[in-house]
Design goal:
By secondary structure, the protein is mainly beta. About 5% of the residues lie in helices and about 35% in strands. The protein has two helices and 21 strands. The strands form five sheets. Strands 5, 6, 7, 9, 11, 14, 15, 18 and 20 form a nine-stranded mixed sheet that branches. A six-stranded antiparallel sheet has the order 8-10-2-1-19-21. A two-stranded antiparallel sheet has the order 3-4. It is globular and about 55 Å long.
């Protein structure tokens, strides 16, 4: 069974810090994620899931040393997927039901860090940095120039966008982003719940590791066939909106507590395997 790979490839350099490439490979029920494939027995209703979109922003990537030191990975801007502060990971290729008109994909985070022989962990945050979250996607520089990953200048960006179909729903959404944002201008906006999952993983080898991240695990306690009642639930899936009953189990899997800034449960969506 193939696992999600998070590979740190050390590239030798003549001077300066070496370059590390963090490579992601998404899965569904142990199989490689593909827009052209459907996956049975997903979620509490054991529905058949058909992917439609899968993208996310990542920032604040660090390597963790055995002694507890956190070493930031300095991102390498490429004018498309990555700035010096944030990376866009794009796992959909526009085929199958992923009718995104976006065939390009990106599975890598690239950056530099001091070379050490005792890197034993990795840490990253899902989301757009707070001081950039309320830019306008129509005028922002890459990779924040993505209207499909943007709600509004007040609402900010969709940190994580997963759209799927199920037996009962043509589209079921999980869009993670900041909640309860208010303000009169981009410089004055504040969000009651920032909703930043911080993923920290240990038992990590220096140059490579295998990290499982399975959408079947993410959706394990969710009913992808649930239909909104129009009263207590007005959205199919979770759009990180107030009192959405379908958000808590998804937030739990990412180590967040829905509508709270208190520490969440231990995240279970990511795990290191060797």
């Amino acid at each position: 069974m193939r696992r999600l790979l998070l590979t740190l490839v050390l590239l030798a350099g003549c001077s300066g810090n070496p370059t590390y490439t963090v490579t992601f490979a998404p899965l569904v029920a142990g199989q490689p994620f593909s827009c052209s494939q459907s996956y049975p027995n997903i979620g509490t209703s054991m529905t058949t899931m058909t992917p439609e979109d899968f993208r996310m922003y990542v920032n604040s990537v660090s390597l963790l040393r055995a002694g507890g030191e956190t070493v930031p990975l300095k991102l390498t801007p490429d004018k498309m997927w990555q700035s010096d502060t944030v990376t866009l990971l794009d796992f959909e290729d526009g085929t199958g039901q992923c009718m995104t008109n976006s065939p390009e994909t990106n599975f890598d985070i690239v950056g530099t860090a001091p070379e050490h022989s005792d890197y034993t962990g990795v840490q990253f945050t899902i989301g757009v940095p707070a001081d950039e979250d309320h830019l306008n996607a129509a005028t922002a520089m890459p990779p924040l120039n993505q209207p499909a990953l943007w709600w509004s200048w007040v609402g900010g960006y969709r940190y994580l966008r997963i759209d799927v179909g199920s037996n009962a729903n043509s589209a079921w959404f999980f869009h993670l982003g900041a909640e309860a944002c208010t303000g009169a201008s981009t410089s004055s906006i504040t969000c009651k719940y920032p909703d930043y999952p911080i993923i920290a993983l240990s038992s990590f080898t220096a140059k490579s590791a295998k990290i499982s991240f399975d959408l079947a695990t993410l959706f394990a306690d969710s009913n992808l066939d649930a239909m909104p009642d129009g009263v207590t639930d007005t959205t199919t899936g979770c759009m990180s909106s107030t009192a959405d009953p379908e958000c808590p189990p998804l937030f739990d899997k990412l180590g967040l507590t829905f509508e709270s800034n208190d520490p969440g449960p231990a995240q279970t969506a990511f795990a290191v395997t060797q």
